[in-house]
Automatic annotation (TrEMBL):
Pathway listed: Lipid metabolism
Species of the source: Actinoplanes friuliensis DSM 7358
InterPro entries linked: Plipid/glycerol_acylTrfase
Xref: PANTHER family: 1-ACYL-SN-GLYCEROL-3-PHOSPHATE ACYLTRANSFERASE, 1-ACYL-SN-GLYCEROL-3-PHOSPHATE ACYLTRANSFERASE-RELATED
Protein's GO biological process: phosphatidic acid biosynthetic process
Keywords per UniProt: Acyltransferase, Lipid biosynthesis, Lipid metabolism, Membrane, Transferase, Transmembrane, Transmembrane helix
Name of the protein in question: 1-acyl-sn-glycerol-3-phosphate acyltransferase
Transmembrane segments: 6-32, 39-55, 75-94
SMART domains (UniProt xref): PlsC
SUPFAM superfamilies, A to Z: Glycerol-3-phosphate (1)-acyltransferase
UniProt domain Phospholipid/glycerol acyltransferase: residue ranges: 75-188
Amino acid sequence: MLRALSVLFWTVIVVTCPVFFLGALVVWAVCLPFDRRKVALHLYSSAWAVFYVRLNPLWRLRTSGRELLPWRGAAVLVANHASLIDILVLFDLFRPFKWVSKAEIFRVPVIGWNMRLNGYVPLVRGSGASVRRMLDRCSELLSAGSPVLFFPEGTRTDDGLLKAFKDGAFDLAVRHDVPVFPIAVHGTGRALPKHGLILRDHVDARVEVLPALLPADHADVAALRDAARDRIEAALRARTGP
């Protein structure tokens, strides 16, 4: 049953993505003269992504703390990463951020085209040159007033445990003196594990935006990084228990 539902779900995505992308092109073209940050296009893309989450009868999604995130002004958003659908559920934030995402996704037909159209930021893992380009681009976005969302673990967890955080997102927050918003993503690892596309049984996914951390309240980049990780880990533990 789950295998058949999985085939149907992914088929719907493949069939409808080109239609949604045509809509994205229209939004981009209409808003181009007055929407340099591509806010309208990102919000359209958010609705596109969340449509698939709401469509799936096995998935339930709730988002809390959305009101903490700014509509305008630079910020760094950091979230834990357990599943491919983290990307889908985080779009339910419906705030105009830019993603940092692995470069392979940008090469996926239609999905990757839309990511480039939105001005999201590619990253080749393990490439120092790509990391530098990514940080430079994120610095430009923050200077222009756009929030940027990172997965500071660098990759999806394969055992459900929160990995160590990398410094990049927090170094940017300190250099630009912008708030860091930790975001705890609950339950997605049970929907789609790191390896495989077969849907699992019912999943209760939750996106929880936590109060901001200010660089001025922390001694250095490492202290800010560890505070963000500790806050996400505490939220995950409160949800699942020890």
